[in-house]
Amino acid sequence: MKKVLAAGLLAGLMTPAWAEAPLQIARQGSMEAGGKLIACETNDGGDANSTRWPRGQVMVDHVYATYQYPADQKYPYPILFNPGGGHTARVYDTTPDGREGWLTLFLREGFATYGVDRVNTGRAGNDICAINAVKLGKAPVSALPAINRYAAESSWVTFRWGPKFGEPFPDTQFPIEAAATYYPQTVSTYRDPQETEKSVAAFAALIDKVGPSIVQTWSSSGLLGYLTAIERADKVKGILAVESSVTAFDAIPAAKLPILAKIPILIVIGDRAQDRVEASRAFQTKMKALGGDVTIDVLPENGIYGNGHTLMLERNNKQIMFRMIAWMEGHIFNPPARAK
Q1: 3-state SS string over the chain?
Q2: pLDDT of residue 276
Q3: 190: β partners
Q4: Into how many domains does the chain fold?
Q5: What angle do CA 11, 12, 14 make, to 5 degrees?
Q6: Is the pTM of this model over 0.85?
Q7: Which CATH number belongs to the domain containing residue 161 in this structure?
Q8: Distance separating alpha carbons of residues 156 and 165, to the nearest angstrom
Q9: Structural domain contains residue 159
Q10: 39 — phi, psi (to 5°)?
Q11: Cα separation, 77 vs 329, whole angstroms
């Protein structure tokens, strides 16, 4: 296995990331949105004037986003790319084997793109106040946040690269030879229930700053996208939901579904995910009864095989992108008349 990992690292380093023509960027930058200032008692009492362990207020519960606008912007709405649990927007950047990710591939097609790090993740920073309070004996151990990070072993099975660690499916689209360059991308994620409310509030604040947008989600951020779209139904023009969690649909308040039904939704699902297919189709049926426009693209049903959970990283990420763009052309930019 060590040889496989070493080979993957070498492959990732040797594959050129500049194989495409030069990008033409009109503007790029970054921003934060949402959050709040809270008192954070991190000083252990040893030095009231400490600059390393200061008392005072710190900003928490915000999102961070980078953005790029193409010189030739063909579409009016930017796409906000949201990572799933255990990841940052890095997952939409250069793939483990050195190809371009969706942040720049969609940019080349004329979309402005935003890469979002959600609350308590990546460059959005972490709320460490409770952790330090426990360390200093000012709070009980039960006050510690629930935090996880994906192990290399669990990634293989959870993300459907193979039946067990080190054994890929014969048709897997994930670049297994470059797995070692993927593992450093995973990050710690806060998993307590209140993180959902925090993330939705901050993501809604980001949409307020950006303006009318298309929301792209993956895995656990699927629920965050649906809930945020409900809160900003006047500004969310469509949802691109990649591999939404099976439990996401039941977590949407039934009373709010008529609001969500006003927004066109595409759900993309890879291979070997019958539970996701069944949950998504039940949601589609429910939304159709409310006049909603929900499309489910089950890739193997359309002759595209071997995709796991990490579609944005896999060898055919560009093919999947074009399917998503084709859907947007027909449902967001040139939609058919919908029954009233």
Answers
A1: CHHHHHHHHHHHHHCCCCCCCCCCEEEEEEEEEEEEEEECCCCCCCCCCCCCCCCCEEEEEEEEEEEEEECCCCCCCCEEECCCCCCCHHHHCCCCCCCCCHHHHHHHCCCCEEEEECCCCHHHCCCCHHHHHHHCCCCCHHHCCCEECCCHHHHHHHCCCCCECCECCCCCCCCHHHHHHHHHHCCCEECCCHHHHHHHHHHHHHHHHHCCEEEEEECCHHHHHHHHHHHCCCCEEEEEEECCCCCCHHHCCHHHHHHHCCCCEEEEECCCCHHHHHHHHHHHHHHHCCCCCEEEEEHHHHCCCCCCCCHHHCCCHHHHHHHHHHHHHHHHHCCCCCCC
A2: 97
A3: 147
A4: 1
A5: 65
A6: yes
A7: 3.40.50.1820
A8: 5
A9: yes
A10: -70, 130
A11: 12
pLDDT given at position 305: 98
All residues at 6 or more sequence positions from 291 whose CB lies less than 8 Å from its CB, including other chains: 261, 338, 339
Residue 340 maps to a domain? no
What's the mean per-residue pLDDT of the chain?
A: 92
pLDDT greater than 90 at residue 277: yes
Amino acid type, 64? Y
Q: Is residue 338 part of a domain?
A: no
Contacts of 4 by beta carbon, 8 Å cutoff, 6+ apart? 166, 176, 177, 179, 180
Res 334: pLDDT: 85
Within a domain: 339: no
Long-range contacts of 227-231, Cβ-Cβ distance < 8 Å, separation of 24 or more: 227/196, 227/200, 227/252, 228/200, 228/203, 228/204, 229/260, 229/263, 230/256, 230/259, 230/260, 231/200, 231/204
- Domain containing 15 equals 2-333
Look up residue 117 and give its two tokens. 């790090």
* Long-range CB pairs of 94-97, under 8 A, 24+ apart, other chains included: 94/17, 95/175, 95/178, 95/312, 95/313, 95/314, 95/317, 96/8, 96/12, 96/175, 96/178, 96/179, 96/181, 96/182, 96/185, 96/313, 97/11, 97/12, 97/15, 97/175, 97/177, 97/178, 97/181, 97/315
